[in-house]
Amino acid sequence: MHQITTKTVMFISGAFVSHYYWEQWLWYFKNKGYKVVAPPWIHKNDAPENLRDANSSNKIGSICLSELLCYYTEIIEQLQEKPILIGHSYGGLLVQLLVQQDFAAAGVCISSFPPAGLSFKKLVFYKNILQFSHIFFSDKSIVLLTFKKWQNILYNSASEEEQIIEFEDFIIPESQTALRDLLLKNTRVNFKKRHVPLFFVAGSEDKFVTSKALYWNYKKYKNFHSITCYKKLEGKDHFLILEPQWEETAESIVKWLDKIS
């Protein structure tokens, strides 16, 4: 069995939201003995209210997938050891791609965006991306989620009060280019390649990346010499890392890391 000795965890944020949503996770993992870091996406190192300003939005509109991969690769190379990568949403896909490039000691993909490849199980995801951004029909460089979409698709299992608070605290503009890149071949994963341990975590109530889509992602990995695991958490939506019971999700990841350490 592949065993890891790394005690450094790097959290990678998803699309549409500020990296500040990892704050309680940083404390949780730090208290478990890990060194933690949660670098923001390039051009997003500011408070959400400032990023919603027009001047900041122009910079965000230039973000693309290849730039994100280079950016996180450079950060990883400056760390003292290969980190455990924990990514959410778009960040989960980045984890898969960074694992493929051998930049991780282990990877955790929470509600991960799917890589390239045809499957009916991914149709809901692509439908949502097109609804959110109109990436083929809009000349705008950024998209800002509406509260209605946040409430009904992304954070649908929370109370309305929680939905309002988290929307105001974390929602920021997203790059249309970064979203458009999801449909290109540069998100392709070699599922037969040997890899470090990977753990896919799904929410049963996720309407954005459904548990079926995440299970498809997990099952595509075919290397029998590598550890690949999957867990569906009941009652949780796409933003299970923000829910009042977020510690249940964090605990399941820590337990998995304990098993492979």
Automatic annotation (TrEMBL):
Q: Which domain of life is it from?
A: Bacteria
Residue ranges occupied by any AB hydrolase-1 domain in the UniProt entry? 10-250
Q: What is this protein called?
A: Pimeloyl-ACP methyl ester carboxylesterase
